[in-house]
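Side project, low priority. Logging it here so it doesn't get lost.
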Amino acid sequence: MLTKIIKTKLTAIFSGVILISLLAFKDRALHQSFQIQAGDTTKWPARFGFGYTPTAQEITAWDIDVRPDGKGLPKGQGDVEKGKGLYTLKCASCHGANGVETGAKLPGPALVGDTAAKSKPKTIGNYWPYATTLFDYVRRAMPYNQPGSLTDNEVYSITAYLLNANKIIKAGAVLNAQNLPKIIMPAKKLFIMDDRKGGPEVK
């Protein structure tokens, strides 16, 4: 019995020594890490030898974002009829023949649906607040297997087709940089402008 008690106490003491040693080692390693980091920051070179200064043409090629007010939209135009053919060729394999949810499992989500605010799934017609965002996204990210391969006219046409399919514009509409920003999306009223300036109200 006495031997068992001694063994138990020795085990507890040994465990305590190990724990204290590990904590001391951790604190020392952390302290050394901070010292190394502080020392390294003062020795960084002005340049690391990676990359190069891009040309104005290269910057222009990447600077293609489009704002809600239409700033950034390129020249060109597109219509619903041409957009329908392009959609069938470039988009239907991922989003379905008409862009409507059918229950079938497809690589891409549904794009066309009821414009009612509470309808599901979320589509261009009931969720997107700006028509220009549709143009911007299609131009930079679609089609999925060849993003950026569409011409500006093709993007205008696909945008026109999708807006018409969602019953937002008429079948005879021709979209361009002037009238696309003027389209009022059904879901715009569901969004509010974040005008907070900072401080405790920003969560």
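Brief comment: The CA atoms of residues 78 and 157 lie 4 Å apart.
Revisit when time allows.
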